[in-house]
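Reopening this ticket.

The earlier resolution said the output was attached, but the attachment link was broken on my side. Pasting everything inline this time so it's all in one place.
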Amino acid sequence: MSSLFRLFSLSLLLALVSCAQSPKQPAQHDEPLTSAEPARDPHSYSNPAQVRVRHLSLDLEVSFEKRILQGNVVLDIERTAAGSASPLILDTHDLNITQAETAGASSEFVPAKFELGPKDRILGSPLTIQLLPRTFRVRVHYSSSPQARALQWLTPAQTAGKKYPFLYSQSQAIYARTWIPLQDSPGVRITYDARVRVPRHFIAVMSAEGNFQTGQARFPGNTMRSLPSSVPTEVGSVAQYSFQMTQAIPSYLIALAVGDLEFRPLGPRAGVYAEPAVIARAAAEFADTEIMIEVTEKFYGPYRWDRYDVLVLPPSFPYGGMENPRLTFATPTILAGDKSLIALVAHELAHSWSGNLVTNATWSDFWLNEGFTTYVQNRIVEAVYGTERAQMEAVLERQDLQEAIRTKPPQDQLLRLELQGRDPEEAVTDIPYIKGALFLRHLESSYGRLRFDTFLRGYFDHFAFQSISTRDFVDYLNQNLIQSATVSASLAVPVEEWIFKPGLPATAPQPKSEALAKVEAEAKSWLEGRLPTSKLQTSNWSFQQWLQFLRSLPADLSPERMRELDQVFHLTRSGNAEIVHQWLLMAIRSQYIPAYSRLEEFLITVGRRKFLRPLYTELTKTPDGRERALAIYKKARSGYHPIAVATIDEIVGWKVE
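Inline output:
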């Protein structure tokens, strides 16, 4: 035995002794919680104005065989004067509740009366638990449904490694209630800890600091990060993971994934998790993550979540990314091999300030999360990859926004939406993202970048670890930027029009890009026959330039002209998901048959809703296309996340057989 190995063994033994199993203690808040009464949330049954959950402790077992999570949650509660005689009301959706118990500060749990109310299609069912006068803790025993909207259970065949199944959650917007009974509102911030038991060979990760445990042995650190390759195989058939989130977060940021995962560091605070077959590509693609963190800190203050890791999920993940604190969930469709789609990581990182640190109080205020984040994303891209790339992305986003304004009804073009009685998923359009970012760009151009950066940094500090409304933001904006600066009437920003009226103000910024303008001119020359396909100067084009070129072509481009492009540039087989998505849309419209097999392959292997929704929508515009859409969907549906299934079912008119 080498001296180095003996030293390692001794260090590991000391760590195991010092970290012996001990009773879980509630995590401490790193930041004080706001004492303000939470905004009334139309998407939650809960009653935080009377009884408010401050911390939850999860104890769950993952069953891949039954496709359920089973265990209990302990909720630490705080009662207001107005809630001294009130029950605790929690949000649930298709949970099997078997028992509820209550306890005082130091007493044992005793059975409590509970009632599960009628089920609403969107909101689920309220769980009402009767409290004793000195109740400080509530424990609920339950299991999730195999059809839980937040959870996707993948078979081995649906993963990259093809060897083990995979589980991951997606709690935003109101799906945390499908795997945890809790106050499922962004206006309620909580700390949490968790114990998660999984079958041997699996790695569990959460949006929290974690450590690994086998049998009675406990390895300190953050999951796989500190696990040396010489750690023995798990004892028995179960591995247990423990997690703590000490910063207060809204419920939609609680996240869990379980699978065959590896970890690669990207810097002192950043790293990436992925399946073994994907990890090398992911680490290369995300190599600039630590630089992004440092850049954002210079603009908007310290990163307050300790670590920023990224988990690359299987292709069925319905979103580009999900900003779970400490552990962004990301789609593999951004692994283009050239960092061309890395703006998504910049976006999810930006959420560490806008969204995770300062959160929308209700989903009607969704633009406070996404508009700010899209603005910060562009600033990160500009600082790391240059002004030209940031300008190109801003121009393309403005095009997306114009299309959204053209197709959405006036009430859905507002930044502050009225979502009473509606599914909050209806807020997820380009309006809150891009119109919100353009509004902030307007403020920046009117008041100057230096002043606006100072304002935005103060905004993040002032509202740190709080959930706020649109009116809270407007009041802060008036007091700390508009009223404190001298701006001529011609430069004044019409704040109320931006937020509470449809469309765009006449003074809205219009991003420009010389690089994209040249591409547009080249596309015109090609269309008019003045420039042969082989003479198109594409050798140094970025994906943004390719996207602009394709968007510059008419919707009725003939199959012959599509074939010309495909023969020279092989667009049907492009490895860039954004390019191939745009190309396949064009193929459907022009009935370019050589791309149909690629279309089917893409729809079966990619679950990102951003791509699925437009492609299925375009297919269903003709009878033949609808037939093709249904045939493809029949093959693909079982591989989509439940969130994507709900969307595509409606588009294609799916009926359960």
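Reporter confirms the inline version is readable. The chain is about 35% helix and 20% strand. The CA atoms of residues 313 and 331 lie 6 Å apart.
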